[in-house]
Amino acid sequence: MSVESKMTACVLRGIRDLRVEQVDVPGPEPGRVVVKICAAGICGSDVERVFTKGTYHYPTIIGHEFSGKVVDTCGEDKDWRGKRVSVFPLIPCMKCPACMEGKYAQCSHYDYYGSRRDGGFAEYLAVNTWNLLPIPDDVSYESAAMFEPAAVAVHALRQAGELSGRTVAIFGVGTIALILAQVARAGGCSKVILVVRSREKAELAHKMGWPDVIDSRSEPLQQRIKELTGGRGVDIAVEGCGRSETMNEALLAAAAFGTVICMGNPVEDMSLQRDAYWEILRKQLRLCGTWNSSFKVSHNDWELVSALVQSGRLKLQELITGRYTLFQAQEAFDDIRSRDRLHLKSMFIIKGEEK
Q1: 20 to 30 Å CA-CA from 323: which of 47, 93, 112, 254?
Q2: SS3 302
Q3: Cis before 149? omega within 30
Q4: What string of DSSP letters covers 276-295?
Q5: Which fold does the domain 160-289 belong to in CATH?
Q6: Burial, 151: exposed, middle or buried (Cβ in 10 Å; 0-12, 13-18, 19+)?
Q7: Class of domain 6-150+293-349
Q8: Residue 3 above 80 pLDDT?
Q9: H helices then E strands: how many in the chain?
């Protein structure tokens, strides 16, 4: 099919300087194909880049959660033409020690769609074939655009090892936490406890079918954890807020020999209470960090996400709370930042497709 010469894109030209512009459509190169973007999710990090953090250079087309269809290729990449794909946004250098071991998320010199180079808030994007994941025909573009946060959730839980029969508490209820809860259930966890900090989030979690929800602002958190786990505490505690308070709570909630997974990006310097630190020692807790996701290795988080979605055990579209066109970009970001209502995943629907 022919591709237009100009396209609409959401361009960040500086902090608080977000513009919808007409820019040149990229072309294919050997090893790089043109993807027609169909759906692109707005991550919390995108909101930070627009309002406070910025990107690594300007102008930048932001967005790193997206899916679409390959529409232009060259050379030996012609077999990709017409394929429906999701995109792993991290571009490893393939030369550093981490890359040599297949640990691409720990690459020393990585590039990244949507922050270090142009990303998916546009009608088209040139993408390295290495970064493409074909998606099944019965998986929607909207779901496929959420493979990135879903893979982050899968990767976090992998740090805990075997899930079957174990109990898990997730501190902080946002998009990734609600995906993580589904993955825990699909993995055979005997109990999934969601810890929230507001009545609105507690009500949302209950409406989405999660019975064991604790509002730590109004309930005795540690007492409720003990009640729900037969006095033991949880086998796995996931800290998803990046805050001192929830980190301390997670350590106190963990059972002896349990695992505490540090997933939340820190919003400021963090500190541990002495009693919480004692918990690490006395209960011999295992603390794990988690970062990004695994791709193109034997434990491919993205392939597992695709399989879970296709099987119906992971439902991503139900987490979408806002849909916008690219021309509504500023409205979308303002809506998310205003906090007038609870937002989970907002998404740009860019090119209409059948799925």
Answers
A1: 112
A2: helix
A3: no
A4: HHHHHHHTT-EEEE--S---
A5: Rossmann fold (3.40.50)
A6: buried
A7: alpha beta
A8: no
A9: 11, 18
